[in-house]
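Table S2 (text version). Query chain:
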Amino acid sequence: MRRILRLMLTAAGPYAPQFRRTLRISLAASLVQAAAYATLVPLLAELTRDPVRTDRAWLWVGLLAGLVTVEAVLRIRETAFTYDHWHLVTQATRLRLGATLRAMPQQELARRAAGDLGSVVGGNATAAAGAISSLSTLFIQLVAVPAVLGVVVLVLDWRLGLVLVAATLAALPLVRQVQRRANSGFHHVDEADADLAARIVEYVQGLPVLKATGQAGADSPRLRTVLADQHHAQSAANRSAALPVAGAQLIVQLALVALVALGAALALDLRLSPATVAAVVVTAARFAEPLGLAAVMTKLFEQAEAALHRVDELLAVRPLPVTPGGPGPTGHHITFEDVTFGYEGQREPTLEQVSFTVPEGSLTALVGPSGSGKTTVTKLIARYADPQHGTVRLGGADLRSLDPDDLLRHLAVVFQDVYLFDDTIRANIALARPDATDADITTAARAANAHEFISRLPDGYDTRVGEIGSALSGGERQRISIARAILKDAPVVLLDEPTAALDTESEAVVQQAVARLVAGRTVVVIAHRLSTIAGADQILVLDGGRIAQRGTHAALLAEPDGRYARMWHAQLAAREWHLGPSAPLDGLRPLRDPGTVDEG
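Corresponding structure-token output:
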């Protein structure tokens, strides 16, 4: 329970002081409750006297009533935390998790499935708050009341007390066994739930593909496996603890039978009064009830512990460190100094001893085969992660000395795969600058060649784009993304070939928008169609994580045996490619645009 209490205090966050106060109130209420049960002993003794001393009997009744009243008041104060703070703890936990996700290194964020994170922020946060508000006080009650009543029985008669002590010692190993099995089992259940949540998100997002391939529905192999794993984990967790729970409850019941039998024998031998025996039996029953519940409740405690652990694990992820006292950027040129970087779990680095400079206001293109490190370069500029060796600088400042929010204010990013939120077009563009006016948003949309198609929509800028922008075409989504980048007006622009997946007509419109976006800015662009970057100030050809060539388009073509020249001629040849005369559809042009070939 110490471990669970520590996790509860972590999850309580800013409400930890109120939580501690609630625990103290719960302990006081439990002690008062135990004292109320203890008054039954002298009360029954007075009621069985001959003659009954009425004044003393009423004294004990009054004390019992007073203790019950005090306990009720304390319980009301105890439950105030549940009613007043439970939803606040849930909200605060989710806000803290949100802040953690916002500051989490992109490398760590990319490693986690969206459904898994959703499960932690949603279900686990709720379960953690529930554990804080209910299970913690219940645990105190289950421990404090039997402890006090056990002492009372020992004082009344050590022989009857030993029966309860023996029962407790016999049941505790079984309770511990339930704890160990439930702890392992519910961690597996929680992992299975997270896997299922992640797979459901994947299933919903990929439903069009699954329908087209006949793998949608209840028999989808993408869901069937994780559903089976979840069922197996839940069944195993319940089965593993069933026998120890039943054993602990049986021991408690046998202890009560033994106590009644021993008490009756002592009463028949006149070594114990019937009133004392009756009081001990009542007290022992109240003693045994929590002990029997403890075995069952242990499963709930461990289930809560699994949820608390997942919340604590996510909160424990530290953001990338910021070196204090470093100078800020003096300009917007970008420098890589002997940079080596490898992703977690990879044996070979993705980039190795890479050095180059992107002068302020220039355009640098990154080309090369898939896996050569092009995207990694742009990720390091946005501080997706820190290199294992070397330094990345912006305006002469080491990125490790810049606050992540300050760094991102200097950058605008346009990805090949655009992500739009299920909101209005206006809201999606305004993400770049929440305080932007409608006029600012319209100006950015015009510059991105998006205003015309937006105006034709039924609700104009208030049209909802659907999940991931599904209500718009690829070219329309890309223009919304460019409008967002134009509105941000950042001095550095990172482009991941924004026209690679577009048709010819959309490409021409988007290229015009991109030209307006990059004008006068420091630009790094990942290029697959070499014709689109022929006018770049410099072209870096990456191969195997190293810079194989660098120079202008003309200078690189002047090296006929170089990789860039081979890629260029391969793309020229691909434009003339068609199916041979032996093919059944002679002369059919390939569906894939030949301009996307990036290596020979």
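Notes on Table S2: The beta strands are 334-341, 351-358, 363-367, 389-394, 397-398, 411-414, 492-496, 522-526, 538-543, 546-551. Residues 578-600 have pLDDT under 50 and may be disordered.
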